[in-house]
Amino acid sequence: MASAHSRLVELSTIVSKNSAILDQYLSDNNIPQPNFDEHDSIWDKESPPDIQKARIALQDASTELIDLTTGSRKYLSKALNQDFTSFDTLYRLDIPHKIPVDDPEGITYTDLCKKLDIDVNAYALTRILKAAIVHHIFKEPSPGRIAHSAVSRLLVTDDLLFDWLGAAIEVVGSRAFLGRAITQFPAMDEANRSAASLNFGKQDGEYVSFYEYVARDPERAKRFGRGMSSFHTGEGYATRHLVEGFDWGSLAPGSLVVDVGGSHGDIDVAIARSFPGLKFVVQDLEGTIATAEETRKIIKDEGLNVEFAVHDFMTPQTLKGVKVFILRWILHNWPDKYCEKILSALIPAREPGSRVLVVDAVMPELGTLPNVTERDLRTMDLTMLGCFNAGDREVGRYRDLMEGVGLKFGGCVRPEGSRLSVIEGMCVVVSFPVPFPPGYPLI
Ligand SMILES: C[S@@+](CC[C@H](N)C(=O)[O-])C[C@H]1O[C@@H](n2cnc3c(N)ncnc32)[C@H](O)[C@@H]1O
C-alpha cells in the first residue's frame, strides 16, 4: 500500500509535470526530442524562463529520486566519485569524528575548527564542507552549524567504512592521473608505471606500484586490508555470493582451499562457517597477513579451520594437494603479463580435479546493461586502470588469459541462481560479485 505522504511519488509527479511542460514546448516549436545524436542540443540555446525553470525542477527532482533510492553505503561511494575533494579533506582532518554523532543540532563551524589538530582557514574549510553537504554528506541543521546526515554518520559508527574511505581516497585520487599516465607511459603494461605511481610520486627515486606503496607503511597496509573487509559488507560484494555460488559441499571433507591474495580472509571465514569440514589457507603479503588480527580472533573464537600464510603469488605455489584456488579481486589488479604469471604460478600445484575460481567483475558489451549499472562498472574499471594498469576484463579476455597459460576454461557464471560446471582436470570458473540483472548473457 502506498504511504500517506510519499516523497518518492511527490518527486515523480514533479518529474512528470515538468516533462510535460518541456514536451509541449518542443512540440509547439517543432523541435525534435532531446537526444545525444544531434550536434547541437536544444538546451544549449536560450529558452524562455518558464522552460528553464521546468528543466531545473525536473533535474532537481530526478537527482533527489536517484539519491533517495541509492542506499547510504552505495551513496557514499558514488558521492566519493563525484566529490573527491571534500572527502579527501574530511578524511585527512578526521571531520566525521569531530561532529557529535547523536546530536541533531550538531556543532558550529567555528567550534568544529577549534577541535581540529591543526589551525585551518575556517572560511575555506566551511566551503569545502558545504560542498559535501549538497551531496548529503553532513547537513546544516541551522545556519552556521553542521551535523551528521545518515550517510556521514556511517563513517563514525562503522570503523571499517572509515578505513575504506582512507584507502578509497588513494585509489580514486590515483584515477585523476590517468591522462598523465597514458601520455607518459603509453604502453600501460607495468604495475609501477601507472596513474597511481604518478599520484604517489617517486619513492626513494623510483616509481612504485600501488601495492609496493601500500606495503611501505604498516598503517596504510592495515587500512587497505580493513577497507577491503568493509567492501564485503556491501550487498553487491557480499561474501555470501561466493559461499552460495560454488558447490563447496561437493568437495571431500578435509579438502584444501587456498585463497591467493586473500587479504584478511573474510571470504574464507564465511565459507568455513558454512562448510566446517574444509581446510582454508589464506595467502597474502607479509604486511597484510600481519594486520589480520581481527579475523584471527574470529577464527580462534569460532574454532574455524582457517590459517594464514605469507606467499607472493608471483612465485610458484608451494602448497600441494590444493582442491580449489580462489583468486578473488586479484586479476583485475594486474596487467595481462602479470596475470599470466599469477596463473602460471598455480600450475605446479595442479592435480586432477583441482579448480581455480577467478572471482572478478566481468565487463559487459557497451550498452547491454542499464546505464546506471554500466556507469558503476566502468568507473570501477577506470579506477583499476588508474591504480594498476589493469581492470575488469570482458569474458573473452579472461578466457584468452587462462588458455594462454594452458588452463582449461570452465565457463563464466554469476553466483546467484547458477550452478557451476565441474570439469575434470584444471577447471577455471570466472564468477563475479556484481549483481547483474537476470538474463544478462554471460558467455
Ligand atoms: C583487491 S585485494 C583482494 C583481497 C581479497 N582477495 C578480497 O577478495 O577481498 C588484492 C590482494 O592482493 C594482495 N597482493 C598484492 N600483491 C600480492 C602478491 N605479490 N602476493 C600475494 N598477495 C598480493 C594484496 O595484499 C591484497 O590483499
Automatic annotation (TrEMBL):
PROSITE patterns: SAM_OMT_II
Source taxonomy: Eukaryota, Fungi, Dikarya, Ascomycota, Pezizomycotina
Record keywords: Methyltransferase, S-adenosyl-L-methionine, Transferase
Protein name: O-methyltransferase C-terminal domain-containing protein
Stored Pfam families: Methyltransf_2
Matching InterPro entries: COMT-like, COMT_C, SAM-dependent_MTases_sf, WH-like_DNA-bd_sf, WH_DNA-bd_sf
Domain O-methyltransferase C-terminal: 208-406
Gene3D superfamilies named among the record's database cross-references: Vaccinia Virus protein VP39, Winged helix-like DNA-binding domain superfamily/Winged helix DNA-binding domain
